[in-house]
Design goal:
2 copies of one chain form a homodimer. Helix content of chain A is 35%, strand content 17%. By secondary structure, chain A is α/β, with parallel strands linked by helices. In chain A, the strands form 2 sheets. In chain A, strands 7-8-6-9-10-11 form a 6-stranded parallel beta sheet, sandwiched between helices. The A-B interface holds A 130-135, 189-195, 197-199, 222-223, 225-233, 236-237, 239, 254, 256-257, 259-260, 271, 274-275, 278-279 and B 130-135, 189-195, 197-199, 222-223, 225-233, 236-237, 239, 254, 256-257, 259-260, 271, 274-275, 278-279.
């Protein structure tokens, strides 16, 4: 568990996109952020107050989160100076970078000397059990996609936010690096050893109040041959009561697989639901989330309306329109 | 790759079952075995000549394979004396034990000093790629089960043996510890990091001659919630042209999951085939293997006959009857 609140380190991000992890944290957990730290030449801005380390300390920040992708997989000397100083001033560091903080000898040495923590969220920090498949109390919702990167995480985050706004019990359960940095905890499922994947998801979503919903972050797709095993483990470890089908309508082929077309929403439904019912016979498909980021307002509304009619399921773009419809659909489960 | 031929170390096995890895190697790769090594009190016998280390050396053995489960997860001092001497006499060691040879400081030190290899086949030794989903030349056959441990490995080994007996091109592709020790190579799929599972299976089954068959060792079951993600990765990474449905008719619930019943062969067929066709649209279910070890001859023949009629697919117990029928079925693919 990563201590909050955070100071978001944007470094020398060359553009807004490079700081999308920081943007995600700002969008979904604004109360966890006291400010942003930018180096000279930084072209990103997530709209938080610019702070020095001392400002952030005074504002109560506990952890400096690297909210930016590093160029060429190297943690530069310019970053290092700030990160070392942060450790010395009593901050922990958290990162989802491919190259690990713990593998940087200077950072590791300072962290040891100062007693601070380096959180590399790509690496599991828990010895997960093998899944036992036993029913748990409480309810669980999982977004499954026609492809990778179609908006499953944003769907679950938007549903969690809407449930909380309604005063209902809900937890977003992170299963990937960005999700973990947003919430401060979770499992890096893609880095878990094969035999323990489903057990890790069970561990993440334990017994809870009967009216509590876990909004489980989806990963991959049953139809994406590189990662379908990870998705399968989420479906069987999560044992969801409710599935949301997630889709991005403008994509011409599966992400990274030029030879593979996306399945229809009907095929996704008919594939995912029987598999989910192995672990939870009461599972239902309750709604559809469409990522319309690449569409105009008119196109988006038209696509959503047509899809809702065709599929007979509540359909929306939860980021563009809010997740009210999808949360309404949970009330019957 | 583990160097052959082997001397099979049976240690102080308390019964035949404890030496089932040695038995598997003897049954399926007799040409890889020069003899067996037994300590005083050993109750197992795989029917090979008893040899000292010196005998085995003279017979050309390169590797001492631990073909027995150790009691209580401890490599005993009695074993250690033999294993250290083996390293000193120039043998490599190979093991599928849960506790690793490399973690035994005395063995590791002697191996370093003598330049010998310690093969712990539970641990991946290769940095596998992420699956790219591209079609490969050659053909692939995968056994998928209604449950774990229903005879998938024996089915693939029996089919491989039958193909070779017919002079056809075939390779058994090991994906588990026993399979790797039997053949000397393969991937320990259950120990691979989630994101690389399907890529590991692609790596294991590369381009080959158009008339060559990879007989891929199956793992887990799509219906076993603890391990279904591993099975899914095998289906999409292996991209099989042919599926064999594997079943054990006397089992009352899924292995280790008392609350879960086994699916029917029809349900297995209707679940596995559409998933396999995502990666290989030409995939077909070609036959059924039944593990009848717990049935009398009459019961077995009757069950096999009824199943063949009901499912309309060639059906046999490949260990009891040979895999001829299943190999015949491949000829139309």
């Amino acid at each position: 568990m990563i201590e909050t609140p955070y100071l978001l380190f944007l470094g020398d991000a060359p553009d807004q996109l490079a700081a999308k992890v920081a943007r995600g944290i700002r969008d979904w957990r604004p109360d966890n952020c006291v400010g942003q730290f930018r180096l000279e030449g930084c072209k990103a801005d997530v709209g938080l107050p610019d702070m020095t380390l001392a400002d952030a300390k005074a504002a109560g920040a506990k952890t400096v989160v690297i909210g930016v992708a590093n160029r060429g997989g190297v943690i530069s000397q310019a970053w290092k100076r700030v990160l070392v100083e942060a450790l010395e001033e009593g901050f922990d560091l958290a990162s989802g970078l491919h190259n690990l903080l713990r593998d940087e000898e200077d950072l590791a040495a300072v962290a040891r000397a100062t007693g601070r923590s380096l959180h590399d969220v790509r690496i599991p920090s828990v010895k997960y059990p093998i899944a036992n498949g036993e029913p748990r109390t409480g309810k669980r919702c999982l977004a499954v996609g026609t492809d990778c990167s179609v908006g499953k995480m944003y769907t679950s985050l938007a549903m969690d936010a809407e449930m909380k706004a309604r005063g209902l019990k809900s937890s977003f359960r992170a299963t990937g690096q960005t999700g973990i940095l947003i919430t401060g905890e979770g499992i890096p499922l893609d880095a878990v050893i094969a035999d323990f994947m489903a057990g890790a998801v069970e561990w993440l979503t334990p017994d809870n109040d009967p009216d509590h919903w876990d909004m489980i972050e989806g990963q991959g797709s049953l139809f994406h041959v590189s990662y379908s095993g990870v998705t399968m483990a989420l479906i069987h470890g999560g044992a969801p009561d409710a599935l949301i089908l997630s889709h991005e309508p403008t994509r011409s082929h599966m992400r990274g697989l030029p030879g593979y077309t996306l399945p229809s929403l009907e095929t996704l439904r008919d594939t995912a639901l029987p598999l989910a019912r192995i672990a939870n016979p009461k599972c239902e498909v309750v709604g559809i989330s469409v990522n319309t980021a690449a569409m105009s307002e008119d196109e988006a509304l038209s696509y959503i309306g047509e899809t809702e009619k065709r599929m007979g399921l509540p359909t929306c773009d939860p980021f563009r329109q809010g997740a009210g419809k999808l949360c309404d659909a949970l009330s019957s489960i």
